[in-house]
Amino acid sequence: MPPVALLLLLTTAGPRKRLRAQFPRATLFLACLVLLCAAHGGFWAYAVGVPFFRLVPEILLAAYFLTGAVLLTFAARVALRGLGGWLGNRGFGPSPAGQAGRVGRALVADALPPLLLGVLALAYLLGTLYVHRLKIPTRPPRRRPSGGPTRTLTS
Length: 155
Description:
The protein starts with a helix and ends in a 24-residue tail after the last helix. The chain contains 4 helices and no strands. α2 crosses α3 (about 55-90) and α3 runs antiparallel to α4 (about 100-130). The chain has one domain (about 10-130). The protein has helices at about 5-10, 15-50, 55-90, 100-130. By secondary structure, it is mostly helical.
């Protein structure tokens, strides 16, 4: 969200009150996301033999990009629920009388948005994971006791 739009959002009393109410949950979510990324990065750091502190920037970037994917998914969820409700009301009325109308409205307003959201969320997640993979730094080459690098069979 651009800074000006965020400033306008936070200057009104209603959104600020809602933001304060959701702040502990959002902080807990972000902390869990960072811990999940740290566990994933720690596993790879241990497997490769790289010090964990070299992965801290990558872990923070991964949490940032995953948070962006979650925010995009929530925005799509709100939009799809609104669109499904509008289509259900437009096509079948707010409270249809017949069985076919009730089933059609339930399908359009209640079942279609989560199905589309699943496709969008999967695309966001795959895009995030494809674009931002944890870049594991290589460990420095081993050295002989004399100070020179060791030779491998291929060199």
